[in-house]
Structure formats: structure tokens, C-alpha cells
Design brief:
- InterPro entries: Transposase_32.
- One of its GO terms (molecular function) is transposase activity.
- It holds the Pfam family Y2_Tnp.
- It comes from Rhizobium tibeticum.
- This is Transposase.
- The protein is of the alpha+beta class.
- Among the domains are: 47 residues, no CATH class; 30 residues, no CATH class.
- It is built from three helices and three strands.
- The protein has a three-stranded antiparallel beta sheet with strand order 1-2-3.
- The protein is extended.
- The N and C termini lie far apart (96 Å).
- The model has no long low-confidence stretch (mean pLDDT 77).
């Protein structure tokens, strides 16, 4: 049995929604802010908003949080999309080529460089994106400010 309703925003919106869940769990540990016997507070993205308003914080009662989380756990005997169907290992290359052709999307260019190293920087608190290093300070040294500008309104002794 499948629960499916017609997509209002078209197939691209459905694909964007499904792509958020094919390779990861519904919520990661870094999105959990606090939890105790009264509730769970976590960070989430509201895709209907733009900019800094996209990152939201929600607190749910423990039983409601568990109920919502379990909606994303597959029943016994079911397979995740990445292990079966379009993204199955045996037919992945041909299926992805066909999907790209149908969606009119060019294949990504592989420049042969190795993948990026694990990045342990915290995400941007506004958008959740990768932070950019502006400056690196030496350990055990205080960062200096710019040199003082020469005073232009000093009285000169005559």
C-alpha cells in the first residue's frame, strides 16, 4: 500500500523532497539542541522561507517527537530507495543517465580530484552552510588590531 497524492509544485519538488531522505536519517545528532523528560528541542529547515528565516527551532513533547521520527523508519521487509530501484547498485549508471535525460539535467563533470576532506567546522548558524575561514590566528598569541592612525588634530608646540 502506498500513500501518494498529486504533487502541487510538480515533479521537481517531489524529487527535491525525496532526495533529502534517500541517503540519510530523518534527523542527525547535530540538529538536536536539548532533550529531557519534558521535550526535545531541535533545529530544522523550513523550505517555504528564505535566508536566515529558513533555520527554525522547534520543541516537541517526547512522545510526539518519537511518533514523528518513527514515520521515517521503514517497516520490516521494505528497502530504502538507495538499495532498490532507481539507485540500486546494479543499474545505477543507466538509471541515473535516463533520469538526467528526462529531467533535462546535465551530468556532473568529474575533474578527477579526490573528494574533500572531512570538514569539522560548525555550520553557519544562519543558513546551515559551510563557514569560510577569514583569518587564522597563531596559538597562544593575542590577535592584534590595526596600527593607530596618526593624529591629525594635535596641537603643535611652537
Amino acid at each position: 500500500m502506498v500513500y501518494a497524492k498529486a504533487p502541487f509544485a510538480g515533479p521537481e519538488a517531489v524529487l527535491a523532497y525525496l532526495s533529502r531522505y534517500t541517503h540519510r536519517v530523518a534527523i542527525s545528532n547535530r540538529r538536536l539542541i536539548t532533550f529531557d523528560e519534558t521535550g526535545v528541542t531541535f533545529r530544522y529547515k523550513d523550505f517555504r522561507r528564505d535566508g536566515c528565516d529558513r533555520q527554525q527551532i522547534m520543541t516537541l513533547a517526547v512522545d510526539e517527537f518519537i511518533r514523528r521520527f518513527l514515520l521515517h523508519v521503514l517497516p520490516r521487509g521494505f528497502h530504502r530507495i538507495r538499495h532498490y530501484g532507481l539507485l540500486a547498485g546494479s543499474a545505477r549508471k543507466t538509471s541515473l543517465a535516463l533520469a538526467r535525460e528526462l529531467l533535462h539535467v546535465a551530468a556532473p563533470v568529474d575533474d578527477g580530484t579526490p573528494g574533500e576532506q572531512d570538514d569539522f567546522r560548525p555550520p553557519c548558524p544562519c543558513c546551515g552552510g559551510r563557514m569560510i575561514v577569514i583569518e587564522v590566528f597563531e596559538r597562544w598569541r593575542q590577535p592584534r588590531g590595526p596600527p593607530d592612525a596618526p593624529a591629525t588634530n594635535r596641537e603643535t608646540a611652537s
